[in-house]
């Protein structure tokens, strides 16, 4: 592994927690890692790109961990929303509305919600789905999954307490009722722990 050194000339990471501030970078060859202040008395390292043993969402070489005083538990929190479509909405109509109508509405209120990232995962039409379910005796699949990231639970709670955040939540819930079976769906907060 190349010698580690600080490099402030590296381009900013669009998914960085501190993208509005100037922060030092550590470079190893062509791999740039941003040093991000996190928990009291410690730092976390967010890779700016993926190469070799470095991944964008948190796996870093042991040398980098040691250089920064060890590993910190993640503070970012992610909402996972497992979605069943309404029974009166056809599959293709559901996917089209979710992607082309609902997604832009989420994007418009992202700032009010203090959300960092939003991803839709649409269930694919594949015979492998049935085989995978049968191998485990699993339930029928969801129609898709939404993932939304925040810097921390505190940031999410702060957004929910503002008039703008509350209104954004109300508007999104109202829209979800057009295509999502809310009672058959599930949502919960998570911390990511990337293994590879």
What does this structure look like?
The chain is an alpha+beta fold and about 200 residues long. Helix content is about 30%, strand content about 20%. It is globular and about 45 Å long.
Task: Give the proportion of residues in helices.
Answer: 25-40%
Taking the alpha carbons of the first and last residues, their distance comes to 19 Å
Cα-atom Rg, whole angstroms? 20 Å
What portion of the residues fall into strands of 2 or more residues?
15-25%
Query: What strand order characterises the main sheet?
Result: 1-2-3-4
Question: Main sheet, how many strands, which sense, barrel?
Answer: 4 strands, antiparallel
- Briefly, what CATH class of the largest domain? Alpha Beta
Number of strands: 8
CATH level-3 fold name of the largest domain: Alpha-Beta Plaits
User: Total number of helical segments?
Assistant: 5
In one word, what is the shape?
Answer: globular
Low-confidence stretches: 1-69
> How many domains, in number, for the residues?
2
Q: In the CATH classification, which architecture of the largest domain applies?
A: 2-Layer Sandwich
Class from helix and strand fractions: alpha+beta
Give the averaged pLDDT, no decimals.
76
The helix/strand order is EEEEHEHEHEHHE
